Amino acid sequence: MTSPPAGRPWEVVFLARHGQTEWNVVRRRQGHLDSPLTAAGIAQARRHGTALRGCGVDGIFASPMGRALTTARIIGAAISRDVAGVDVEVVDDLAEIDHGEFSGLVDEQIDARYPGARQRRAADKYRWRFPGGESYADADVRAARVLQQLSRRPARRPLIVAHEMIGRMLQRHLLGLDPHLAVCQTHPHDVVYRIDPAGRQREPLA
Questions:
Q1: Residue 5 falls inside a structural domain
Q2: So which residues are the catalytic ones?
Q3: Which is nearest to 202 in space by CA: 176, 180, 175?
Q4: Counted domains in the chain
Q5: Within a domain: residue 141?
Q6: Has this prediction a pTM greater than 0.90?
Q7: 24 assigned to a ligand binding site
Q8: What pLDDT score was predicted for residue 135?
Q9: Is 21 annotated as a binding residue?
Q10: Which UniProt keywords apply (predicted)?
Q11: Taking residues 171-186, what's their average pLDDT?
Q12: Which of 1, 63, 111, 159 is found 20 to 30 A from 90 (Cα to Cα)?
């Protein structure tokens, strides 16, 4: 189990995944590459903004990847109607896990170029590293560093906009999850999680 981040305790943490992208639709791996939000992805971000209005979000922190940053800005625009002065701050360590040589490929291409690699990954998802990229264990270090950094900020009800895979490691620390359980967590594009770090509780907001 993990320990709560140092610094002042958060009242609540909101965790959002970026909206659906063009590559999500065709199941092409993005990692540190990027693709635009689809119309559905933009609508998801707008719904997140509506759901978060009135929730007291006092800080927005986003991955530098375009899909997450666009999502965060759409949400921020909606929140700013009620709360002035909540700008989106980019946090480099919130970038998605680097898929290395798998970036830009679909599963059929991966199987053809790297026979057996997906099976080896399935045997130990936490420690397995993408060729030329990162593992969940690497991202775990980044996630802990992000939360330590954010715990020292004034925001007590922050919104974090990132990705599913790095988001699993953020949830690991916020909820005190075993790493092998954390890698099994899902985060749909159309869900914002409301996380109570003190109570180690998570519930979907929208």
A1: no
A2: 18, 96
A3: 175
A4: 1
A5: yes
A6: yes
A7: yes
A8: 98
A9: yes
A10: Glycolysis, Isomerase
A11: 96
A12: 1
